[in-house]
Structure formats: C-alpha cells, structure tokens
Specification:
Elements lengths: L3 E7 L2 E9 L4 E5 L15 E5 L6 E5 L3 E5 L5 E7 L3
Antiparallel strand pairs: 1-2, 2-7, 3-6, 4-7, 5-6
Length: 84
C-alpha cells in the first residue's frame, strides 16, 4: 500500500491523497490503512485515480476496500473523498 495523507475535511467528510504501486496492473487499497480510518467507511467513498498511462481506473469499490487497475507496474496518484 502507498503512503496517504489526510488533506482536509469538507462538510465533515475526510479527504485523502496518496500514491499506490500497481503490481501486474492492479492493487487492492484497504481503507483501514488510511490515517484515522478504523476498518471501513459507512458508505463507499468517491475515488479518483490518475497515472502515467491515463488508463488507470477504480475497477471495484466497497466500504472497506477498492481495487485499482492500470498498465503494468505504474505508480498512480489517488484521491479519496469520504461519502456520507
């Protein structure tokens, strides 16, 4: 998992920013690894990803984890917005 930072709050919703490394084109992001998150969110968060190929995407998301896909072994930037 990558290194994430809590970058702020908007209307009580936390916002995180960080990077993850893709291994063979995907990685699983566990929200419990985010600063201040204990296990999961109440609702699946909004997740935005970007990287060098432009083909990066969130292929699935739930209240406790998300799967991010892209090309090869890229490093991708991720922003997560808590959804309430």
């Amino acid at each position: 998992m990558g290194d994430f930072t809590l970058i702020g709050r908007s209307n009580g919703r936390r916002q995180f920013r960080g990077e993850v490394e893709l291994s063979e084109g995907s990685t699983t992001l566990s929200y419990s690894d985010l600063p201040g998150v204990r296990g999961s969110f109440r609702e699946p968060p909004h997740i935005f990803v970007t990287g060098p190929s432009g083909d990066e995407a969130v292929s699935s998301r739930g209240s406790s984890q998300a799967t991010i896909q892209g090309d090869g072994d890229d490093t991708v930037q991720v922003q997560i917005f808590e959804n309430r």
